[in-house]
Amino acid sequence: MSRVALVTGGAGFIGSHTCKRLAEQGIVPVVYDNLSTGHRANVKWGPLVEGAIEDKERLAAAIRTHSPECLIHFAASAYVGESVEDPGKYYTNNVAGSIALLEACRATGLGRIVFSSSCATYGIPPQLPITEDMVQLPINPYGRTKLMIELMLGDYARAYGIRSVALRYFNAAGADPEGQLTEKHDPETHLIPRALMAAAGRIDRLDVFGDDYATPDGTCIRDYIHVTDLADAHVAAVNYLRDGGEVLHANLGSGHGTSVRQVLSAIDRVTGRPVPVQMLPRRPGDPPVLYADTNWARQRLGFRPQLSDIDTIIATAAPSFGLEVRS
Ligand code: UFG
C-alpha cells in the first residue's frame, strides 16, 4: 500500500516544496487548501482537496477518503505585522483552525501530526543560539498562536495519544533548485524576495528597517534556511513518527546568522545586480538577532541542511524574479 500524507496548506510556499520532497520519497501528498494564499499551480504531486481548515467535517472526510499515515499542518496566516493589526484573524485561522484539525484527527483516529511552528514563539531570546528548552515568550499575536498550538498538541498527546513534531522554522527562503516552484507571496514582505525585486527593477528600492542595531554592521541578523532543507525535515519528521517517535519540538535553521547587509552583498555577488536601498527607522517588533541551535534536529531527525548557505539561497530564488545567476 502506498504511503500518503495529508498536507494542509500544501499549495503554499513551504507546503508545496514539502509535497515535492514527499513525492520524491514515495509518499503521496494529498493537499488540503482553501487557496486563499496558496496557488493551484503549486499542487503538482498529488490530489487537491479544496476546503477550509476550520471545516472539521470536510477534513475528517478527506482523512477517511485518503487514509493518510500522517497530517502535515501548514495552513495558517503568517504575517507578523498583520497579526498585530488583526489578531482575530490569527486566533481564528490558526488556533480555532488547529482545534478543528485536532478534532478531525480524534474523530478519525489519525494519530500523527507534523506542525509548522516558528522561531516567533521565542520572542526576544535571553541568549544565542536559541535552543528548544529556552523560555517561549512571543512578542506578537502570530507567535502566540503558534505557541498555543504547540501547547494544545502536548495536551492532545497526553490525553488522546496523538503524537506530533512541532518544527520551529527560522527564516524560510530560497526556492526549488529545479525551478518547479517559486516563492510567491501577496503581499510580499520578506527581505530576500523584496531585495531581489529591487535588484530586478520590479520595485524602486528596498527599504532597510534600521541600521543602528548593536550588531557588527548595524542591521538585523536572521537565520535563513532553504525551503528545500525545510521540506526534507518534514519528510524526516513523518518517518520519525512512523517509527514510533514521541512528541518532539525542533528548531530548523542553518545554525548561523546573516545580517541584512550581508544578504544584500550576496545578491550583488550572485546576480551582479546591486540592490538599491533606502535606510528607514527600525520596524516595530523586530528582534535584533535570531539564530538557531540545530543540534536537536540533527540528533533526532538527522537534519543536515544542504542548500542553506546564503549564496545558494539567493541563486535558487533569483530566477523567480527574472535575474540571472553568475556562473
Ligand atoms: N527587512 C528589511 N526590509 C524589508 C523586509 C525585511 O529591512 O523590506 C528586514 C527586517 O527588518 C528583518 C529582516 O529583514 O530584520 C528579515 O525580515 P523578514 O520580514 O524577511 O523576516 P522576519 O525575520 O521578520 O520574519 C520571519 C518569518 C516570520 C516569523 C519571524 C520570527 O517570516 O514568519 O521570522 O521573528 F514569525
TrEMBL record:
A GO term for molecular function: UDP-glucose 4-epimerase activity
PANTHER family referenced in this protein's UniProt entry, alphabetically: UDP-ARABINOSE 4-EPIMERASE 1, UDP-GLUCOSE 4-EPIMERASE
Swiss-Prot/TrEMBL cofactor(s): NAD(+)
CDD domains xref list: UDP_G4E_1_SDR_e
SUPFAM superfamilies in alphabetical order: NAD(P)-binding Rossmann-fold domains
Pathway participation: Carbohydrate metabolism; galactose metabolism
Broad class of enzyme this protein falls into: isomerase
Keyword NADP listed: no
Protein name per Swiss-Prot or TrEMBL: UDP-glucose 4-epimerase
Subunit structure and binding partners: Homodimer.
Superkingdom field: Bacteria
EC number(s) recorded for this UniProt protein: 5.1.3.2
Reaction(s) this enzyme catalyzes, per UniProt: UDP-alpha-D-glucose = UDP-alpha-D-galactose
Keyword NAD set for record: yes
Pfam family membership, one: Epimerase
Residues annotated as domain NAD-dependent epimerase/dehydratase: 5-253
Keywords: Carbohydrate metabolism, Isomerase, NAD
Family statement: Belongs to the NAD(P)-dependent epimerase/dehydratase family.
